[in-house]
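Check out one such.
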Amino acid sequence: MTETALDKKMRPKVTAMIADSRSGGRLTEFKARSHGAYDTSTLETPVTETSHKIMATPPQEVSSQLIGQADGAGDVIRVGDKQLIISGEAADESQYTPRPLDLVVLDGDEHRIIRVDTLYTGALVGAYIVFTRSG
């Protein structure tokens, strides 16, 4: 996609807001997971993880208004799920797009991404709201 004038103005502002969020933005490790072809000799599907460090807001409990909402895949937001925001600009620089089933390391523990909402600043992604679940 072609960057619009609005993208040029707003994407850096979104990135700055995340870095300056209330508790301070932090570098957060995201692990992209790729599944290979099923191996009939081992009866396994190999999984490759690629690590990306991206500035994100600190994780927060999901708003009670979102509890019980299902996404397109049928996963329901639950009490205890967390959400954080990463800038589209930072994700582009890291060549990473968050996806369900990828992992996020929060306070030393791995959390599975269960949903990703995309916010646009024009033609390009301004931010991703990432919903995670522990375990």
In short: The chain is about 15% helix and 40% strand.
